[in-house]
What does this fold into?
Amino acid sequence: MRRTSRMPAPASSPKPVFSQDDLLDSLRELFERRGTSDDGLTTREVAAAKGWCQERTDRWLREAWTRGLIESGRSHRLARDGAMRQVPVYRLKHAHETQPRP
It folds into this structure.
């Protein structure tokens, strides 16, 4: 007879809370450190720079986008097969453009 054990479901982690100042400072630091122009950063590039997993990075970027601190767009990146492809990127908005989304 084969026994199966069920692992208890992991407790859900609390939703991260970012103050607007902390979020904006962190975004500015990230974009300045990367030397990014208006080209923007992909989710993978942000995750690699911050040392975070994809899920945490998505939550962080979604929060910044919702608060109107970043904008999304498209840019070209070199793919593994050598072709240039359009990918979604995030760009830091200028101070006079930052407005929270409804």
Remarks:
- The chain has a mean pLDDT of 78.
- The CA atoms of residues 9 and 15 lie 17 Å apart.
- The helical segments are 20-34, 43-50, 54-66.
